[in-house]
């Protein structure tokens, strides 16, 4: 069994954590993500305000929408859950298989339905 370079593991962890905690990195990922889905009628990515974004603050456009976990609200708004699920699955497949990009935090708090059919995705990559 090979010895583990514990110091190297800790240093790598420190570099990764510092990068993850820098919201400028996150902003760049949101912008990159938005370019991938520019013109897609089913996907909406909030605009990043780079002039206000810093290492500690990420400023994005406010979005009105319904969380995907709020089924009653989605149904009462006239949204079709089956169609939304298909669009969401296509979004995931396009991210991974077409763009090689992975949304690392796709929970209901990061995905909203806007205007009954658009998926507004808040990104954590």
Which range does the strand content fall in? 5-15%
Poorly predicted spans: none
* Percent helix: 40-55%
The biggest beta sheet reads:
4 strands, mixed
> Within the largest sheet, what's the order of strands?
1-4-3-2
State the oligomer.
single chain
Question: What is the straight-line distance between the termini?
Answer: 34 Å
Number of domains: 1
SSE run? HHEEHHEE
What's the β-strand tally? 4
Radius of gyration, taken over Cα atoms and rounded to an integer in Å? 17 Å
The average pLDDT is: 86
> Per the principal axes of the C-alpha atoms, what is the gross shape?
globular
What structural class do you assign from the helix and strand content? Answer: alpha+beta
How many separate helices? Answer: 4
Walkthrough of the structure:
This protein has 125 residues and is of the alpha+beta class. The protein has one domain (6-121). Helices cover 42% and strands 10% of the residues. It has four helices and four strands. It has helices spanning 6-20, 23-36, 71-76, 81-98, and strands at 43-44, 66-67, 111-114, 118-121. Strands 1-4-3-2 form a four-stranded mixed beta sheet. It is globular. The two termini are 34 Å apart.
Using brief descriptors, characterize the structure shown.
alpha+beta; 42% helix; globular; single chain; 125 residues; 4 strands; 10% strand
